[in-house]
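agent: user wants the structure for Hydroxyacyl glutathione hydrolase from Natrarchaeobaculum sulfurireducens. delegating to structure tool.
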Amino acid sequence: MIDNLAQGVRAFTSNVYLVGGERTVIVDPGANFDVVDRIRDRVDDLDAVVLTHTHSDHVGNIEAVTDAFDVDAWGYDPSIEGVDHAIEDEERIQLGDHEYVSLHTPGHKDDHLCFHSADAGVLFAGDLVFQNGSFGRTDLAEGDRDTLIESIDRVLERISPDLAELHTGHGPSVTNQPYDHVELAAQMARQM
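agent: tool returned. relaying tokens verbatim.
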């Protein structure tokens, strides 16, 4: 089960994915809304918070969630406030009922991670790519277009054309040929 808890929220926030199963986690706790009540409406407990990156719209609710459920937060750079434990590049982690491989994908932000499960056919892309060939901003601190393109290319090498679900940091998830959306983002990032 993957449920976007930020659906319908009218605030500056990222998507917030509740991944239920053997290891119930939140991928990005979001910001500027009461996500704790939305979590409690669906599950009794959490095992961890997992971060794609630490922009404020993705982590503003981190303290509320970690305090409410007495869990730790995992991300790429534990020197950043709120990140308790490091997730290394290529590390295998359990999200819900599936094993995912973490991919360090800078370009939007230096600590950016994507999570891919070949078995589940799922990619959590954070702010690397979005639907319809959109891609993460590179005009913010730590942003770099060439690095972003390299990161998108790296993800393309890992995923397959039968990818079933693309869960992005903003906007709707893609369940209709999501590989094509990632491929288009790689092309669009080179043109702009």
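agent: one observation worth passing along. The CA atoms of residues 22 and 29 lie 19 Å apart.
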